[in-house]
């Protein structure tokens, strides 16, 4: 059975509202693998500012934040090493090694 984009979005909305994948798939005769793909394609997150973000956009933003975190850590480490003559190295190592 072929579902329209609107139907797929409605199924994903049911999932977001608490219905289980198994319930949705059994009731509508949808393979679970197909439904998980629909979740990836149609699930949206709305931020506090009202911006709509897809899972793909969220993953991309997460990677960027992690990259910026590494950059900030590197700058902090360089600054502290220069300003303290290296004595902060052990503090930094224990603080940032999570």
UniProtKB/TrEMBL annotation:
GO terms for biological process: DNA transposition. This is Transposase. It holds the Pfam family HTH_23. It comes from [Clostridium] leptum DSM 753. One of its GO terms (molecular function) is transposase activity. Coiled coil: none annotated. It comes from the Bacteria.
């Amino acid at each position: 059975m072929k579902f329209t984009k609107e139907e797929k979005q409605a199924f994903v909305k049911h999932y977001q509202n608490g219905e289980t994948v198994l319930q949705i798939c059994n009731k509508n005769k949808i393979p679970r693998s197909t439904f998980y793909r629909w979740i990836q394609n149609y699930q949206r997150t709305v931020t506090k500012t009202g911006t709509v973000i897809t899972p793909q956009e969220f993953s991309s933003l997460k990677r960027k934040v992690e990259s910026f975190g590494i950059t900030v850590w590197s700058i902090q480490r360089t600054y502290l090493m220069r300003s303290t003559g290296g004595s902060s190295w052990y503090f930094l190592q224990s603080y940032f090694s999570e």
